[in-house]
Amino acid sequence: MTGRLAVIGLGPGEPRHRTAEAEAELAGAEAIYGYGPYVDRVADRPGQMKIASDNRVELDRAGAALAHAARGGRVAMVSGGDPGVFAMASAVCEAIERGPAEWRSVDLAIVPGVTAMLALAAACGAPLGHDFCALSLSDNLKPWSLVETRLTAAASAGFVIALYNPISRARPWQLGAAFERLRGVLPSSVPVIFGRAVGRPDEQVTITTLGDADPQKADMSTLVIVGSAETRIIERPGLPPLVYAPRSAGGA
Amino acid sequence: MTGRLAVIGLGPGEPRHRTAEAEAELAGAEAIYGYGPYVDRVADRPGQMKIASDNRVELDRAGAALAHAARGGRVAMVSGGDPGVFAMASAVCEAIERGPAEWRSVDLAIVPGVTAMLALAAACGAPLGHDFCALSLSDNLKPWSLVETRLTAAASAGFVIALYNPISRARPWQLGAAFERLRGVLPSSVPVIFGRAVGRPDEQVTITTLGDADPQKADMSTLVIVGSAETRIIERPGLPPLVYAPRSAGGA
């Protein structure tokens, strides 16, 4: 007898950003696994168990949830944003590949959500309106040289770049190094957007330029979007400016 | 007196993929603008007007909605997926930049949604679980040479690539040319995922390889994800395989 594991995207913050499907899966689960702050976002329900863990034990957490589901449980795993973007869906797949055969038979549902870069883009206009990429600045699980290769390749080809995991206490210099790298490729006038706690009551969106971008303005709750040479800014009287990528590119 | 324009992402298909915020904005609008098939996805409400238009008149549609809001109306513009990803948010910003001054004072809300690549990724595992990019194959508004430059840059640097607008009646050869280009850079064993009508009752997800990928299998409702050399496939007894990007990359 096998159960079900739903890997659920909670979206960028408050419940209004969740899909109806995510709410239904949360309501039907008997246990909610996840990183503490994400588990805390789910309302308590009678009879529902919450199992919160630290953010550096993704594979252990995935294994615990899979084992619970394999015993017949109806289990949910929550991620902020979308579970498939630098979040728990990959860890769950990895655990399935490495784990006991019965985990492959678990009824696995991955429930997409609004990932942070989409929420930040919506908060300031449409900076991801043309070709873009998403890149994690964490070098915990990849060499920094690969981050540099990808930054240069993406910026040189004119992609707008969303930087996930830009900074943390254990990774204090990477965002500054990334800006330096990008300044070697892009004009210093390119818009850069810092979005902190997007979709939450303390949301803070700051628009600056690559020349002026200060890595100290980012923390673990920040997503950074680096525009391209084609990114435009519209000033508005009494309202924050809009940043957007035109629908046309390359002089077309 | 100015009104409000909400540019709303409907998500990939059925109402269960919509956020609570999108539903609330739809309910509060007196007029719904959009490309016909997206407008059709919104339930009729008494007193609410629907203004559907063709998919090649984005800027005209944006202008009509802005003019309506600038006259004091509560207006919604709907997009499939997320409005900020190859959709109406950019066209609205472009119309604001080019249009009369009073359009800059419209209360503009962009309501994010689950974009197609996230829905397709969720339907087959976690292929976007590490660094990836989103690239439109349409050469209506950019030169094809730029598409080729971006394909080569992204694939060479190890990004997984989501291909939006892969094919249409007016653009029949571009997807085949893109696969050819990618075969020059990536191993032919790299997984390729075709997702048709993802999130709708007739959803069809096909997993193949870059060597075998047949552009004729795509149509206007298809999104294509091209993996990287690190993308993995997990076979499951009696269930479709899972495709995923490991959390580590570059040998780390």
Number of domains of chain A: 2
Instruction: Classify the fold: give the CATH topology of the largest domain in chain A.
Output: Methyltransferase, Cobalt-precorrin-4 Transmethylase, Domain 2
- CATH hierarchy, class of the largest domain in chain A: Alpha Beta
- Major beta sheet, strand line-up of chain A: 3-2-4-1-5
List the quaternary state of the chains: homodimer
Element-by-element helix/strand order of chain A = EHEHEHEHEHEEHEHEEEEE
How large is the share of residues in beta strands of chain A? 25-35%
Shape of chain A: globular
Query: Percentage of helical residues of chain A?
Result: 25-40%
Largest interface, C-beta closer than 8 angstroms, per-chain residues: A-B, 85 and 85 residues
User: For the residues shown, what is the average pLDDT of chain A?
Assistant: 96
How far do the termini of chain A sit from each other? 58 Å
What CATH architecture label of the largest domain in chain A applies?
A: 2-Layer Sandwich
Spatial extent as radius of gyration of chain A: 20 Å
Structural class of chain A: alpha/beta
GO molecular function, one term (chains A, B): methyltransferase activity
Pfam families (chains A, B): TP_methylase
Organism (chains A, B): Kaistia soli DSM 19436
Pathway (chains A, B): Cofactor biosynthesis; adenosylcobalamin biosynthesis
What do you see in this structure?
Chains A, B: GO terms for molecular function: methyltransferase activity. Chains A, B: This is Precorrin-3B C17-methyltransferase. Chains A, B: Pathway: Cofactor biosynthesis; adenosylcobalamin biosynthesis. Chains A, B: Pfam families: TP_methylase (PF00590). Chains A, B: Keywords: Cobalamin biosynthesis, Methyltransferase, S-adenosyl-L-methionine, Transferase. The structure is a homodimer of 252-residue chains. With 252 residues, chain A is an alpha/beta fold. Chain A folds into two domains: 4-114, Cobalt-precorrin-4 Transmethylase, domain 1 (3-Layer(aba) Sandwich); 117-244, Tetrapyrrole methylase, C-terminal domain (Methyltransferase, Cobalt-precorrin-4 Transmethylase, Domain 2, 2-Layer Sandwich). Chain A has seven helices and 13 strands. In chain A, strands 3-2-4-1-5 form a five-stranded parallel sheet, with helices on both faces. Chain A has a five-stranded mixed sheet with strand order 7-8-11-9-10, with helices on both faces. In chain A, α2 links the parallel β2 and β3. In chain A, α3 (58-70) packs across α4 and α6 packs parallel to α7 (174-183). The longest helix of chain A is centred in the first third of the chain and has 13 residues, at 58-70. The model of chain A has no long low-confidence stretch (mean pLDDT 96). The interface between A and B is large, with 85 and 85 residues.
